[in-house]
Amino acid sequence: MSQQVLWEVVKGNNAFLVKRNGLTLSTDPFNNTGVQTYSSTGFISKNAVGVVPTSGKVNQINNINLVAKKSTKFQQVDRKAKNTQSVYASTLAVKHGVHTASRVIRKRFGTSRVGLQKAALRKLVKLNRANSVRRRNELAAAKAQKK
Amino acid sequence: MTSVPLVSVFSADDSSKVTAKHIPLPAVFQTPIRPDIVSFVHTNIAKNRRQAHAVNPQAGMQHSAESWGTGRAVARIPRVSGSGTHRSGQAAFGNQCRKGRMSLPIKVWRRWHRRVNIKQKRHAAATAVAATGIVPLVLARGHRISQVPQIPLVVEDKIESYEKTTDALNFLKRFGAFEDVQKVVSTKVVRAGISKQRGKKYRVRKGPLVVYFNENAKLLKAFRNVPGVEVVNVTRLNLLQLAPGGQLGRFVIWTQSAFAHLDKLFGTYRYSSIIKDGYQLLRPLITNPDLARIINSNQVQEKVQPAKTTKVLHEVQKKNPLKNTKAMDRLNPYAKKQRVAAAAAIKANTKGTKKIKKNKALKKASRAAYNKVAASLNDATKAAVQEEQDIKVKYFSVQKGAAQTE
């Protein structure tokens, strides 16, 4: 379905829309900027990657999931796929570090949509930093407990 | 659409099993999405469930109030007749008065219902059905469909024979629809406002809509106690259920026969509807609404001129070439050489000129003279200081070891 047409339906009101303090924000998982705009609203586009924090176990290195938007002809779940699949997204846990994740993002966007790519990368880096701080604190706490 | 999208029918018992692999999508799902039609029809149709109400026609008017007229130093509003109570002499009847009747009291014969042209209603229903097959719209409406195996979700007719709510619940869980039901349960809120005292205590969200076909289906009873779930027959699809609140994209679960009936119900682009007499599906104004694709297509790109680069013709802030050497050089490339030559010339000149030499000599002489004077002054001051010291020593026996005084 065309992104333009969907935008006309969705821009006025949608489940992810949050209007606060004069700002028009979005909780869309495919939106990496947080602001609702035509280009950043990923759930209506064919090609989008969402960088999503997840609540993981203590020892999990990265609590980040990459949620890649699917644009399939059959809006069906591919059961044979390795990643967690849903009708609209395939989820990839960021396990092997930020660099591989950034590769995935770059590959997805290629040379087009540089703005979106940058937004995704920026969010990835921020989440990663937050994670490392959290992990450092957790390790320190674990150490203190041991003592 | 050149190729017709296909849809699988799932087995009711096992969500991983597919009973019918590729069924073509009914033409309704290709209808152009027209939120304007839906919005218009919805606002009008939503009024049709209203029950007449009115204000008591005598409310506020049950007085024999009369205006006191002018000359009594009071406003001319009708006043309650009689005496012996606070109420007497108080204003009455007007909408602005306390205990007066309201302005334009509501009458029972107010026009509560709206009629909408049949064609519009049908177009709206068709669009709403189409929207239920578009994932982003279902997401935008707020349904939780991350576990659902397919949209549109078509299931074999077996669910029509469900009688027990347990069966219904398990079915929903199997097909990932339970998440939506859970959302409904967890977001049940006590309604704000007086309505809660009038039998509408809770505000409950909408969950999945189950659409069946066979009239003697028992699933209504199975599903009706599941919060948020609504059950409806295909022949009686309701815009208020397909697009609640005028918002497109309800999460719908179709039974196989209901799904197959849609072509008969709405017709296709090849034949008009069999059931809705003379109804033809709406055709899109633009067959290919994907602007990005049009712009990037070969046909357009061939004709289009190459993209202009933003060329800066001049600097953003003007620099004065008389003061700014670089700006000058940009305008006159020879200026640099001129400057160098001039500087060299000045330097050469300063070395040899008579006048300059004379000045130099004078300077030297004057400096020498000054130094002489300064030196003699220095000596004088030194001598003076020494003399003062001697006097002090001589007459006031200040240090210098002069012990006795006379």
UniProtKB/TrEMBL annotation, chain A:
The lineage of its organism: Eukaryota, Sar, Alveolata, Ciliophora, Intramacronucleata. The keyword Ribonucleoprotein applies. One of its GO terms (cellular component) is ribonucleoprotein complex. This is Ribosomal eL28/Mak16 domain-containing protein. Belongs to the eukaryotic ribosomal protein eL28 family. GO terms for biological process: translation. Keywords: Ribonucleoprotein, Ribosomal protein. One of its GO terms (molecular function) is structural constituent of ribosome. It comes from the Eukaryota. InterPro entries: Ribosomal_eL28, Ribosomal_eL28/Mak16. The keyword Ribosomal protein applies. Residues 5-129 form the Ribosomal eL28/Mak16 domain. Pfam families: Ribosomal_L28e.
From TrEMBL, chain B:
One of its GO terms (molecular function) is structural constituent of ribosome. InterPro entries: Ribos_uL4_C_dom, Ribosomal_uL4, Ribosomal_uL4_euk/arch. Keywords: Ribonucleoprotein, Ribosomal protein. PANTHER family: 60S RIBOSOMAL PROTEIN L4. Belongs to the universal ribosomal protein uL4 family. It comes from the Eukaryota. GO terms for biological process: translation. One of its GO terms (cellular component) is ribosome. It comes from Paramecium primaurelia. This is Large ribosomal subunit protein uL4. It holds the Pfam family Ribos_L4_asso_C. Residues 278-351 form the Large ribosomal subunit protein uL4 C-terminal domain. Coiled coil: none annotated.
